[in-house]
Fold this sequence. Notes:
- The structure holds 3 protein chains of 3 kinds.
- Chain B is mainly α.
- Chain B contains 15 helices and no strands.
- Chain C is α/β, with parallel strands linked by helices.
- Chain C is built from 10 helices and 12 strands.
- Chain C is globular and about 70 Å long.
- The two termini of chain C are 22 Å apart.
- The chains are: A mainly alpha, B mainly alpha, C alpha/beta.
- Chain B: Its main location: membrane.
- Chain B: The chain crosses the membrane at residues 12-30, 100-123, 135-157, 177-199, 242-264, 284-310.
Amino acid sequence: MSATAAPPESQAGRVWARFRRHRLALAGAFVVALLMASALFAPAFAPQDPTLLDTALRFRPPFAEWAHPLGTDELGRDTLSRLLYGGRVSLTVGLVAMVTTVATGALIGITAGFLGGWIDMLLMRFVDTMLCFPQVFLLLVVAAFVPPTLLSISLIIGLSSWMEVSRIVRAEILHLKEQDFVAAARALGASRRRIMFRELLPNAAAPILVAATLKVASAVLMESYISYLGYGVQPPLASWGNMLTNAQGYFDTVPWLAILPGAAITLTVMGFNFLGDGLRDALDPRLRMDP
Amino acid sequence: MIGFVAWRLLQAIPLLIGVSLIGFGLMHLAPGGPLAVYTLNPTIQVQDIERIKVIFGLDQPIYVQYVKWASGLFSGNWGYTFFGGRPVLDVILERVPATLLLMGSALSVAIVLGLSIGVLGAVKRYSVFDVLATTGALFALSFPTFWFGLMAIFVFAIQLRWLPSGGMWELGDEGNILALLEHLVLPTLVLALVITATWSRYSRSAFLEVMQQDFMRTARAKGVPPAARLLRHAFPNAAKPLIALLGVELPFLFSGALVTETIFGWPGMGRLFVDALNMKEYPVLMGMMMFTAIFVVLGNLLADIAIAAIDPRVRLR
Amino acid sequence: MAEPLLKVSGLEVHFPIRSAFLRRRVGTVRAVDGVDLEVARGETLALVGESGCGKTTTGKAILRLIDSTAGSIRFGGEEIAHHGTSALAPFRRRMQIVFQDPYASLNPRMTVGGILAAPFDIHRIGHAGDRAERISALLRTVGLPADAARRYPHEFSGGQRQRIGIARALALEPELIIGDEPVSALDVSIQAQVINLMKRLQAERGLAYIMISHNLAVVSHVADRVAVMYLGRVVETAPREQLFFHARHPYTQALLSAVPEPVPGRSRSRQVLQGDVPSPAKPPSGCHFHPRCPIAQPRCAEETPRSRIIAPNHAVACHMVSA
């Protein structure tokens, strides 16, 4: 494997060199950093409270006045403020869902791959079965019956998308567990748990990191869609998805209300997708797909 | 070959049982359970709920309910809707043609476009076209389908007024094929975008891999013209991973169709699903989950059999 | 003679061959097919044979890294062939292994310090405070600088990595170390250094070694006694000089005649074996070696030869050899 065969020069340096060549990935990293910063410092950047109503100032167009750089919505709320706070919500859900996905997927993948036998068989048939359900169906059915909170939404998204991660981790573990360093650990008397989590898991870090990055993108997409349908983040809490729902009613007259949150979703998803693609090329040349 | 098909069919059975267990479990584990629509309704009395439970068999032990429900699944008795009391299978089946039409047209567009882009990219690797196409595919994959749909409606229906913004027919114009096609254009394009991107990426890498094989070099050395090399030598070999992709991508196609249908008011299964969700019509939701999952299992089965038909080596494994 | 440190008798390791269809058992690979071995304290037994003869599997079965199908493994007088994880724990401290491939045997994601701390962590030896001291002592013992602990395996050369592997094996102060081709992946110039290190450690600590090797030149340097394996069985066991100069089994003789560097003083008459090594899934009947044996008789195809002592410490499993 690549990690073991690496020559004695700095591994991190080689990875960085490969990543830097990937211009879209750099752009993705930049966008992700920008989004994180704007979500983190939303209170500092936002012109006003995102829930503040001002019915005298409804439907202000963007770039018209300093007080509302991106205009106002149907209730006179400041669009930029709502976008910034909505970004907080989207990224929080995206990250918590990703952690759920990765934790579940890695745990199931490593258990199946390491223990093998009928446990592996059962877990992998479970994965196959879960993959038969379209994710949006699975997500919406559960979301419709669970009271929507940020945590419940994140968990539902995370728990409906871990299957690919478990397959990736299992494949990696199957390859790793035949290596001598695992036999060495067993000869020392290491417990199964120690071998699984101290010896094997860190070696599967690269594909997990790539999957994690791509999963943030898909989680943000899922959150915005179920919020758009009304089963996700509930008003007055702003999310890019529910901003779109409201905007749809004024589509023909004030299109920017729909364009802006959609553009924010697209930018975020692209940022994480490009970053993940670049990481895949940089960390694991075997998985390369694009020039 | 018959043995292979039988073996594959046999393997699908545990998958179908698993699918039914998860679908059933999900509905019963959900807070409020299958009767959420009634228990949450303050005008319905406790004794009424008890009566409803008996009518729907919900007072029986859980495994009895499952066995009854699962055997009904196979005999075509998928239960009745809470509102209106219509057979669930009928309700679903009447929506299937619209969804299949949308999925079929989007898939055809996506396969033709995606395959052409992918093959061209593979043949002219690292050309301007290839770089633009692979980059474009990455962009397209990041586009939220529902927002793209809204934008398409805004541009083509509201601003340009070229195409209708939603639905399948105009009122009183049912059966007009031209009108249907007109309504089909936007949802097809929107649904096809992401699939085209996926197909162009996969067909590019599938062809790149095939073209590096020894038999391709041999064909070239023998003087087989490029077009024939591509069609007769590369294509049958690259087709395998692409057929597999067709099976694997089915759930995503359903997800995409659901999203597209909600945006365009397309009267298919996706629309039905969201309506059922809003009314907490659990028999319909459960029926639809089962329907799509069974569809996916069978789709993958067909893909596997098609691959085995092309490549005899697969059968021997 | 007192009870040896390790006594293996009748050891068998069989692997099932399963079909893709329903995973039915369709055959058996007899990787180890009735092996008897003894190792005394402080001695080096070399286990030699061609690749695929089951020598590595034998080593791993002794360490209980692979479960044996049958037979007995007595270590320090105690039967350990069927010990569970917890009963095995004290024996993990008493026997260790050094692997062939110094690239695959060290976890690439752990620092050398982490790799060497693992034995102490697992057996709860010492406390966090004296860990660093123990690790640098180990590194000193194998001739590596103390600052190696902070670095990762890929920053070291093959020979240095093998020293790290030896340090790990030494950490628990074992009585027996199994070296699974410990130098065959190294450059020839480095091989001698590592072998000398292992010999020095043996002298200082009274270690016993089982050296698994296909390289008779290496074996001639380190072994006190040599056991020759063919298709899962030991065909000849003898003290080093006895084996190199008075080998009796026709397979051993063929093996010795194929060595490119002649052992000084041995007359060279090259015997070339006919045919390939048969598959351990379908071993020949009787004596496994009979289809390739230059002196085989009809009896050899029917009857499995038993190991017989023909001289002090010299045992041969061949119908055609008499004392």
